[in-house]
Amino acid sequence: MRKKWMAMAAAAVLISGCASAEPANTNEQRNEINPLTGVESSDTARRTMAVVVSNHPSARPQTALDEADMVYEILTEGGITRFLALYQSEYPDKIGPVRSARDYFIELAEGYNALFLAHGYSPEAQGILLSGDIDQLNGIQYDGGVFKRDGSQKEPHNSYVDVEQALDVAEQKGYSLDAAPSRLSFLTEKEERSLTGEPAETLSIRPSSNDLFESVYEFDGDSYHRSIGGAEVRTDNIFVIEADHRVIDAKGRLDIDLKSGGDAFLIQDGLLNLVKWRNQNGRIVPYTENGAAFVTGKTWIHIVPASRGLNKAVNVEIDGEGNGS
């Protein structure tokens, strides 16, 4: 049976636990805990790499999307979503297909001091990227080198980052590659065990009316998994935020308010809670008066238009009698 999530029910549910796991400041702790996942690791002293990845049906299945520590899914023009994939705990050999940048992708990447990679740019993004203020590599300048074309696919969904070459060129340009980001806050094991919320074992997210960009997640008792073009990705946190979207030109390009904060659904361990989101030093993070944070593991953040609203964008499927339809 299927049930659309209602705000009245969600508003009554808050996360228990104080989310006391604040970011560590010492180098010793940073080297022990991965900054984007909170998972213990022996090698965390590397820079975040942020890559704009296509989600067009012709681009699926994507390469190495499942290896990202954190992924933002955001609308571009025409109700189409695109990914900003952040890699820090490991660098894959190849990532893509890579698409063009928007200014809000750059804004999100800056929150992690990431090396930014895209193939192309909007006029707003072009001005930012070519200013020299951002450490970045773009397929417009490095087509055929850092960005290699896959002859089995059609443009523009055939450009892939060769990560080894990207790192070589970044080094040649004098970009730092060992500037690990500060660590996100994560729930402690005790706080995670005390989580409460509404059951959310199967859910779908539709940021627009375009059915081709609906995402469906299923909880297997350990993490959420989602199929994209036949390839499976897994995540431990699903964070759905609503933000104001405004069309700014005749091509339908968007301005997205990523600073003002607002309502959000935080979905973890098979449970859904209504929380708030805020921009904390360039990062989109959850919070409530009682405290909220991600559980350790990977995170997917969906940004949906406030005009559409969380209730319309997110649907939760609940099994059993008496749960409505």
UniProtKB/TrEMBL annotation:
<feature type="domain" description="DUF3048">
    <location>
        <begin position="229"/>
        <end position="301"/>
    </location>
</feature>
<protein>
    <submittedName>
        <fullName>Lipoprotein YerB</fullName>
    </submittedName>
</protein>
<dbReference type="InterPro" id="IPR023158">
    <property type="entry name" value="YerB-like_sf"/>
</dbReference>
<keyword id="KW-0449">Lipoprotein</keyword>
<dbReference type="InterPro" id="IPR021416">
    <property type="entry name" value="DUF3048_N"/>
</dbReference>
<keyword id="KW-0732">Signal</keyword>
<dbReference type="Pfam" id="PF17479">
    <property type="entry name" value="DUF3048_C"/>
</dbReference>
<feature type="domain" description="DUF3048">
    <location>
        <begin position="36"/>
        <end position="176"/>
    </location>
</feature>
<feature type="signal peptide">
    <location>
        <begin position="1"/>
        <end position="21"/>
    </location>
</feature>
<dbReference type="InterPro" id="IPR035328">
    <property type="entry name" value="DUF3048_C"/>
</dbReference>
<dbReference type="Pfam" id="PF11258">
    <property type="entry name" value="DUF3048"/>
</dbReference>
